[in-house]
Amino acid sequence: MFAFCVGEYGFSEDVACQRIAVARAARRLPGILDSLRSGRVHMTGLRLLAPHLNPENVGDVLAEAAGKSTRQIEELIARLAPKPPVPTIIRKLPTQVIPQQPSPTLFESSLAAASRESSPATGLVPAPVGQSDGRRAVMKPLAEDTYKFQFTASRACHEKLRQAQALLRHRIPDGDVGTIVERALDLLIEQVKKERFASGRKPRTTPIEDGTTSGSRHIPDAIKRVVFERDAGRCTFTDELGRRCPETGALEFDHVDGFARTHVHRAEDIRLLCRAHNQHAAEQMYGRAFMERARGQAAAVATVPGVPSG
Question: What is the pTM of this model?
Fold first, then answer.
């Protein structure tokens, strides 16, 4: 079957294995085919769910998995089949030795020079193909409330972690890395929210009047705080079907009527948008050509030595 799918249908090895596994599971549980035909659950999700489905739970599990992403289905599987916590491991990675290339022969050097002369584009240095830095972080659910974290850190990060363990021995006697990281993230999130959205910051005794004309693009903290809490720290873009953008990262304050036109900071006229939707809104208001020129000028200024960006 595998050879047939690869040879006759032209599937890749991964796709062939995936489809065969789902087909075999569908022979036991025909409801899988219904979810696949209707598009309620995608192929990758069904492949992940197949080992955990049985006649008793197939209906409920497939209904819960409908419309979910791969990551959400992985979390669902972690509830169905929880795994024990993984051991904490901190170790130094081995130094990667890059093999030296032998010096080219006279013929090879002449051939390369002739190739560069015949094609100007070959003067560009191509990016290495098939190489990975191996630094991609891993976050996998183990059970309903536990996750596995794996990442590569610098020597400085390792030393800071050891210092934090030593300082917190009176509160975290076992020096649990997960607990320390969680506490550090609590402090970092609180600090960034305070800096970017004025969340948790003590308001002024004489707050700035909302809606007054301003020559500065700086939004008063009181207005930032109102907008962030009202929009629940999430992009407010909504498509024609009423679906709201789920993005919570790279959020920006957007003046609905354009600050360049009104020069007014008013909470009801400001919203949170992710960077992509903020750029989209700006292009709709000012035109794509104008925004491309503005972005080009900003990028040029950012590359000038001694000129601060932002």
Answer: 0.64
